[in-house]
Design a protein that fits this description.
Layout (H helix, E strand, L loop, with lengths): L1 H9 L12 H20 L2 H9 L1 H28 L4 H11 L7 H8 L4 H27 L8 H25 L1 H7 L5 H26 L5 H29 L3 H12 L3 H11 L6 H35 L9 H6 L1
Helix pairs in contact: 1-10, 2-8, 2-10, 3-7, 4-5, 4-7, 4-11, 4-12, 5-14, 6-7, 6-12, 6-14, 7-8, 7-12, 8-9, 10-14, 11-12, 11-14, 12-14, 13-14
Length: 335
């Protein structure tokens, strides 16, 4: 992961949009769709149906992600003013807080931690469907934008062919092809699938940093430091609070970790076109976008760092052990 970031910094032209790797097609379309196809292959229909039935936990995840997130974003506004950071960057973080969860990262990280994959897929899909309508309205309420023109049909179309279709294709293939189902249930099949998923995740990190290094963030000095500190702190606090909520609602550790990832994350794929649509004519659009460019790599880095601890936490629950696998807040911050 660190090597991919260093490579991106050395020559970002390779992984840029429309560059030699064509990440907008190879990674953002094929790679993301492949992740969801693999997720579908790993799912059993009974598990997905069971995830949909847990109304209270699902409602808590959606409420936190689309409701409590903006409230947390509002709470950060005075801190930006106190640190004398550009107010437009504070507005950018507020916009980020209004966005729905990621459509791939929360599922990948949940799977890597051994958490409840069905719960992650169900809530990622629901959050992004709801976010198409709720996020613009929340941004309007929090930021006060007077003209919002969101391509709803285009966003829904992308969600269908990049997320919903691959997941259900994977589920169908598993159900209809007995030989494939038998093969997938073999322990020897888990490692190749895991390596493929992690390889795509590293590719997403690489191309994300390539584009970030090329576009720049239009911030310097105090502003850059303020955003670099505030955005990861916002995400860490969201992770911690969502974990506490999930822990109060369910004793199943795999569900707690899934809820934590899904409820706390914010999507770059949905957020960037949304910001560019709403603030297309604003000279401050680059500053509004800066926190979003920080949140995506922050989520990837923090999620990857704490995944081994979370996997131990879940395994300890299965064996009746203590919660020694779960890292304390100080331990996460020191990492």
């Amino acid at each position: 992961m660190c090597i991919s970031i260093l490579l991106a910094a050395h020559n970002p032209q390779i992984g840029r949009i429309s560059g030699p790797l064509k990440p907008e097609f190879t990674i953002n379309t094929i790679g993301v769709s492949l992740i969801f196809l693999l997720s579908g292959l790993s799912l059993k229909v009974q598990e997905l149906a069971s995830a949909a039935k847990d109304f209270k936990l699902n409602a808590a995840i959606q409420t936190f992600n689309l409701g409590a997130g903006p409230l947390l974003g509002l709470a950060f506004q005075p801190l930006f003013a106190l640190a004398r950071v550009d107010a437009r960057l504070a507005t950018g973080l507020l916009i980020v807080s209004c966005l729905p969860t990621t459509v791939n990262m929360c599922i990948v990280l949940s799977g890597a931690a051994g958490a409840n994959l069905a719960l992650a897929v169900f809530n990622a899909v629901v959050s992004n469907f709801l976010g198409v309508f709720i996020a613009p309205a929340t941004i309007f309420a929090c930021v006060g934008t007077t003209s919002i023109n969101i391509p709803y049909l285009q966003v829904i179309k992308k969600l269908v062919y990049k997320v919903v279709f691959p997941v259900f294709l994977g589920i169908t293939l598993r159900a209809k092809i007995p030989a494939l189902k038998k093969r997938l249930e073999l322990p020897s099949s888990k490692l190749p699938l895991k390596l493929l998923t992690e390889g795509i995740l590293v590719s997403i990190i690489y191309t994300t940093f390539c584009q970030s290094f090329l576009e720049g963030l239009a911030v310097t000095g105090r502003d850059l430091i303020g955003v670099a500190v505030a955005v990861p702190t916002f995400h860490l606090l969201s992770l911690w609070l969502m974990f506490l909520v999930a822990r109060a609602m369910t004793s199943k550790r795999d569900e707690q970790i899934t809820a934590m990832f899904v409820g706390s994350q914010k999507t770059l794929a949905f957020g960037m076109p949304l910001i560019r649509t709403i603030f297309e004519t604003s000279p401050s659009m680059a500053l509004y976008s800066a926190p979003l460019l920080f949140i995506h790599p922050s989520q990837l880095l923090i999620g990857s760092m704490i995944t081994p601890f979370l996997r131990n936490y879940i395994e300890a629950g299965k064996t009746g052990g203590r919660e020694e696998g779960w890292p304390s807040k100080d331990r996460i911050l020191s990492s």
